[in-house]
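Person: Show me a sequence?

Helper:
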Amino acid sequence: MHMQHGGGHQPGGGMQMNMGDANATPAKDVQGAQLRTNPFTLLPTRPPGTDQAAGTAWLAIHPGGTTVTLEMTGLAPNGEYMAHVHAKPCAEEAGGEHFKFDPAGSEMPPNEIHLAFTADATGRGFMTAENDKPAEAAKSLVVHPAEFTDNRIACADL
């Protein structure tokens, strides 16, 4: 896409875009939710060095809206990543376009669900994002390096 997301984490708040909260309740732990989960599958567009990437995505639809969580391993140590909820399943155009609550609306949260995260020193990544609307029509979660949005690493059907 044409947008640069910088580091995705703005210390101290300020103009904080909702790109996830590592301390939020993970989707799999949300009480009374309709839970969808699948492992990530590697995509042919992944950049070199990401063949070990693996993990799981969860999407919980609940009375308060939507919670999305990802856990991954095999990422570049301390690498910065971005994940987006997508409108199509992984088998169709590797997830297709980003899922939008309002198709004519913004490409940024809260109209889309984005998860920005940095892998730890062992290559493990974890993030949860919350949205106050139910993303019933969401089909997948796609992960890519923060600086190369076209290099989709992996996709999980939701």
Q: What stands out?
A: Residues 1-16 have pLDDT under 50 and may be disordered. The radius of gyration is 14 Å.
